[in-house]
Amino acid sequence: MRYAVRAVGDNGVITVTVDAADSVAAYAMVEAQALQPLSVDDTKPLFTPRLGRFSLTFFSQELLSLLEAGLSLTEAIDTLCEKEGRVEARTVLERLSRALNEGLRFSSALEVQPDFFPPLYVGLMRAAERTSSLTESLSRYIEYRERVESVRNHVVSALIYPVILSVVGLLVTAFLLGHVVPRFSTVYQGTGRDLPWLSQQLIAWGTFAAKHGWPLAASMTALIVIGALAGFSWWRSGGFVRLLRRMPWIGETVTTFELTRLYLSLGTLLEGGLPIMQAMTLAEGLLSAEKRIPYRMAMNAIGRGESVSHAFEVSGLATRVALRMLRVGERSGQLGEMMRRAARFHDGEISRRIEVFSRTFEPLLMAAIGLVVGTIVVLLYMPIFDLAGSLR
């Protein structure tokens, strides 16, 4: 959800637009930018447009290549701006170049455009400025995005075939009930033969559909539109994810995916040189509303001096594998690396679960669709089989 937050900064009162799960998270994200929030307003429209055609990952990859080639940061940004042909992306780069030429730090120049550069990215670049490791931070962010997108693409790929299969099954069923059954009902009318009860109900539906075809079509269209709008609103409000969390096995996988993204983000920020509290503040926006409360409890515990592993264990934010890796990371002073290793381990686990889901769910879905379509066809042809038997 998008929020417009009025805040006090070095240049006076400004309005910052951030993407957050709720108003509390929006406040926290603005505070992480060294601003004092005053008020917050929900600015999310029904259909949120894409914010131009600016790819942060692609930008980071190109910037890294130019920096490794020996160009300065300002020269690299100017080069990207000159070669960019898309208006939206060129505008972003021009603003960035202008801010750098005015003497702003790279992180401060990124911070001016929060719609395109999220707080996590800004924080990582700010840490890189302290250690003069911009190329390393860019490499870490690129790896972070590639791993997140890899898991997400795996999930989407696993869902494409079941969705297509479901849509085709619904279309075939609708065609049978809306076109074939009404035609068969006219054939069976007046035959005077006793039909099986299920066939009678199907023929009754066909007769009704034949007499009221247009009103039924209009009603179905209206229901589809209303259902699509309601489903879209339910999806945007997080209802679908909440439903998945309540399901056995699937809910555990969703939670693991969320924690994996948290470990990966924190590991990337810690390895980039950020302190643990600042890193946790920047990563808070990645969590759902259900996980944000225990996450803040863990932040408070760490702020009081407790270890990260103990705070995460008490708050329920650490899997068994991650907990052991966190303890090893604390002993060896490589907490960021251990978090990234935990994320890598759970990435493989999630991929295996998705594969098992695909192998199990797809045959069951095909069997269910075949059962529905086959039942309709059998009920339509049962009177014909009965009539053929009587002719013998």
What would the keywords be for this entry?
392 residues; mainly alpha; Receptor-associated Protein; 3 domains; three-stranded antiparallel sheet
**Number of self-contained structural domains:** 3
Strand order of the largest sheet: 2-1-3
- The rounded distance between the terminal residues' Cα atoms is 70 Å
Shape: elongated
H/E series: EEHEHHHHHHHHHHHHHHH
Q: Helix amount, in percent?
A: over 70%
CATH superfamily of the largest domain: Type II secretion system (T2SS), domain F
Number of helices: 16
Overview of the molecule:
With 392 residues, this protein is mostly helical. It has 3 domains: 2-42; 56-117, no CATH class; 133-392, Type II secretion system (T2SS), domain F (Receptor-associated Protein, Up-down Bundle). The protein is built from 16 helices and 3 strands. Strands 2-1-3 form a 3-stranded antiparallel sheet, with helices on one face. A hairpin with a 2-residue loop joins strand 1 and strand 2 (12-19). The longest helix is centred in the last third of the chain and has 57 residues, at 335-391.
Gist?
The chain is mainly alpha-helical.
Q: Helices and strands in order, then pairings?
A:
Blueprint: E1 2-9, E2 12-19, H1 23-31, E3 36-42, H2 56-68, H3 73-83, H4 87-101, H5 106-111, H6 119-131, H7 134-188, H8 197-211, H9 213-236, H10 239-246, H11 250-271, H12 276-283, H13 289-303, H14 308-315, H15 320-332, H16 335-391
Helix pairs in contact: 2-3, 2-7, 3-4, 6-7, 7-8, 7-11, 7-16, 8-16, 10-11, 11-12, 11-16, 13-14, 14-15, 15-16
